[in-house]
Structure formats: C-alpha cells, structure tokens
Amino acid sequence: MGFVDLHCHLLWDVDDGCETPSETIAAARLLRAHGFSDAAPSPHAIPELPSHDAALCERRRRDATALLEAEGIALALHANAENRLDDAFLARAGGEGRRGIGATGAWALVEAPFEGELPDVVERVRRIREAGARPLVAHPERCAEFGRSGRAEEVVRAGAALQLNVGALAGLYGKEARRRAERFLDAGLYAVAATDLHAPEGAERWLGVALDALARRAGADGLALLLDTNPRRILAGEALP
User: Residue 188 — φ and ψ, nearest 5°?
Assistant: First the structure.
C-alpha cells in the first residue's frame, strides 16, 4: 500500500479538473510516482458543472478505473465529491445525496468559501454531525474564515476534520495560505493531507516539493498519519482518534 489522496480532480470532462482521458492517465502516473496507491477523485457537487450529476461521476470513475487498469497504473479510485458547505448540502447531508467518501460515505468532503465570511461555520459542522455525517473540511488554509483567530480549533472541536492542500506548503496559493498551513500543521489540527490535483501540467514542478516540505515539517510519523493512516480510516468510514 501507499499514500491515499482524498481530494483530487482526476475524472476527465466533469468539472475544472482533468479535461481528457490522457490527462487523467498522466495525473494518475504522477500520483503513483510520488507514492500514492489510492485516490478518491472529488468532482465538484455544484449545479454549475456537469459533476453535479452523481451518476455521471460514478460512470466516469468506473471508466477511469478501467482505463488505468488497461494502462497498468496501480491506482485504486474510490467514490467521493467536493461539496459546498452551504444550505443545499446541509439539506442532503443526512441521506444518500450526501455524496460522501468511499463505499460507506460516512465522511463528506466539504469546502468553505475562499473569500468572505462564514460566521456560522461551527453551527454548520454541528448540523452535519447531527445528520449522521462526518465533515472533512477541504483546504481551510485557503479560506478567509479560517484566518480568524481560533476558528480552526473551534471547527475541530465541533466534530470536523481538516484537510491540508499540500501545495500550500510549496507556496502554490500564496504566502498567507502557506503561513496558515504551517500554523495549523504545527498545532496538530490537520487530520489529512491531499493534493487537490486538477491537472498534470505543472504539477510535476510543485507536488514533490510540497510532499518534501510536509515530510520535513511533520516528520515520518506525521506524514504517514496524514497521507496513509487517517485517509484509510476515513475511506473505511471509521472515526478518527
């Protein structure tokens, strides 16, 4: 086994991620080259994109699985979606429309807005938990609301887990996102690290740098926890320690 990527956009022609089967192949090869054995492609579950159609995304995941097998790329693809942390998601969080992670769907990947405030984010997390789901909050280091002092800690105490975009450690999203990522990482707030890989082009320049930065800052044990142990627990629908 190897690393598990719980946030990436490998499925072609469904959202703003890979556009063609060739790009999906190249992105999968890149993940394999950096130690990943599993990925849970997370197409955006939003009305503006074809990926709003869960059935389409599942067909594409199966097609991608067959394609990678034909190419000899040993990267297992699991079910997933990237959900907005909005009222529409709260309305479906308790049912099959949740579009959760892995076969159980017990966990759901959710994202807060990059800009602007989300003052009731803690209450939203609590409502998701009350609905029977566990939220994994995508890239909080990139979201303005998590720039508030103590906000990340509040969200974790409310029952969410936080997911680091490893590219932040390589400066991919700017200095402020990098500072937040380093601060949250040092405080032990992240449960998972992921690539949020959208396309192979350019990623070969930052992905290795980002993973090296994570290894230096978190250590070998931290790297294994964030990219292997905890992601596999989430895939299995298990609670985190």
Answer: 75, 25
Question: Tell me: the pLDDT tens digits for 148-168?
Answer: 999 999 999 999 999 999 999
Helix (H) or strand (E) holding 208: helix 203-224
pTM over 0.90: yes
DSSP 14-52: SSSS--SHHHHHHHHHHHHHTTEEEEEE--B-STTSGGG
Closest by CA to 139, choosing from 124, 161, 116, 121, is 161
- The β-bridge partners of 227 are none
- CA distances to 53, 103, 105, 106, 194 from 237, rounded to whole Å, are 23, 8, 7, 5, 18
Map out the domains of the chain with their CATH numbers.
3-235 (3.20.20.140)
Tell me which residue of 117, 102, 22 sits closest to 67, measured CA to CA.
22
In angstroms, the CA 129 to CA 229 distance is 22
pLDDT of residue 1: 81
Give the mean pLDDT of the chain: 98
